[in-house]
Write a structure and sequence with these properties.
eight-stranded antiparallel β-barrel, 1 helix
Length: 151
């Protein structure tokens, strides 16, 4: 019996070590060209998956998303959806580049206090570093995901 309990304890401890670090919270995205803050994205969990919604735009709060049905404002739009914990990273999701109107496969992981978000097509991709955003508070109830419909 002792051996069984020891094996169970080792198994539970080792499976916890393989879980990806939590990526939920508020993250500041940085413009690749100007290196200035571009937006704040709220990453939240819903039904075992992770989603990301733009909650603030720094320069153009009325900017709209290209190639999305209805041309919605970027502010309030889910741009990341369906990511799942895959061990060391969150994978299996997609991310929308609202300026270009393109959707890419996506994965994300923590690097210290920062979040690395990788958008990719096949094996080609590009990483962005998102920084923690201070002064934002998660709502009492997580938002309901709303994947945008592309044209």
């Amino acid at each position: 019996m002792t051996k069984l309990l020891t094996m169970l304890a080792v198994f539970l401890t080792s499976t916890c070590l393989w879980a990806a670090q939590d990526i939920t919270g508020f993250w500041t995205t940085i413009d690749d060209e100007t290196k200035q803050p571009k937006s704040v994205v709220h990453i939240y969990a819903h039904d075992g998956k992770v989603y990301g919604r733009v909650v603030k735009l720094f320069n153009n709060p009325d900017a709209t998303a290209k190639n999305v049905v209805g041309a919605p404002r970027i502010w309030g739009l889910d741009i990341l959806w369906d990511m799942q914990d895959a061990g060391e990273r969150f994978k299996g999701g997609e991310i929308l580049d609202p300026k270009k109107g393109k959707v890419y496969k996506c994965e994300a992981w923590r690097d210290g206090d920062n979040l690395i978000v990788r958008g990719k097509i096949a094996f080609l991709g590009r990483n962005q570093t998102w920084l923690p955003a201070a002064g934002f508070q998660s709502p009492a109830v997580a938002p309901v995901p709303a994947k945008p419909v592309m044209e």
